[in-house]
Amino acid sequence: MKGIILAGGSGTRLFPITIAVSKQLLPVYDKPMIYYPLSVLMLAGIREILFITTPHDQEAFKKLLGNGSHVGCKFEFAVQEQPNGLAEAFIIGEEFIGKEKVALVLGDNIFYGNGFGSLLRSKVDVNGAAIFAYPVKDPERYGVVEFDSEYKAISIEEKPEKPKSKFAVPGLYFYDNSVVEYAKNVKPSDRGELEISTINQMYLDEGNLEVGVMTRGMAWFDTGTVESLDDATEFIRVIQNRQSAMIGCIEEVAYIHKFIGFDKIEDAIFKYGKSNYGEYLRSLI
Questions:
Q1: pLDDT per residue over 240-265, tens digit each?
Q2: Environment class of 146 (CB within 10 Å of its CB; exposed 0-12, middle 13-18, buried 19+)
Q3: In the chain, what is the greatest distance between 2 CA atoms, to the nearest angstrom?
Q4: How many domains does the chain divide into?
Q5: Is the pTM of this model over 0.90?
Q6: Is the residue at 149 inside a domain?
Q7: Which of 144, 167, 192, 218: disulfide with 133, CB 3.0–4.6 Å?
Q8: Domain with 237 in it: what CATH number?
């Protein structure tokens, strides 16, 4: 399975913070926001990853992330000229995806939970599609999944005025290779975007959509607003300081999963110097 991180958009809900910098490069406590979704794909065992950015932000992402060799991965970059919707990621990434399955994670989504890595790795060989549902207070801001009495998904709507449930669909999706053709058949919504919910509904109509409800032990943050960005920062700070374990440390994930060896950790320690991040890597060895 290959992976795509969609890190485009203009971040207008965070203005003026994001006028000069991509929101996915903003700090969430002690590391750039993009490290968190990147660590999610790496936890799933995915090593070939495409970053889709705006044209003017791409050089900054390349400077931060490089080609991925420092974490045993292969990074590629592509441009989304306009924020035309999440489904466009599969059209932009068609050549990158090739004949493989693909996972998509949004660059401003943060996940945390016990057993989360095992959950991710159970989806990488998906036949059809696998998405998740998470209970929220404001489902009208998201794609919303409706369940029947046996918790079987029966519909998916994008940002409905009157949500049929409290279950939002987080920005993490696993698909087989059919997703590329499905994406090409998506028509723009009333918002003028190619909606990911339309693709999910296509899989649902074919009986090939798996929807897993995230348990209470899982945490999900969509850091698209100032309030949610602040909440995520505080959450990461508290968890890390209480547990003395770092969330979203890509070198640690790479080392644990044997993407890299001891020498790359030493290189990273030198790179990050006396920062908290560098000191944490030093503590691992």
A1: 999 888 999 999 999 999 999 999 99
A2: middle
A3: 55
A4: 1
A5: yes
A6: no
A7: 167
A8: 3.90.550.10
C-alpha Rg value of the chain to the nearest Å: 18
Nearest to 174 by CA among 205, 128, 212: 128
Task: Please tell me the predicted confidence (pLDDT) of residue 17.
Answer: 85
Residue 271 falls within a domain, yes or no? no
Question: Per the domain annotation, does 74 fall within a domain?
Answer: yes
For the ranges 55-64, 206-215, 276-285, the maximum mean pLDDT occurs at: 55-64
- Domain range holding 213? 2-129+170-248
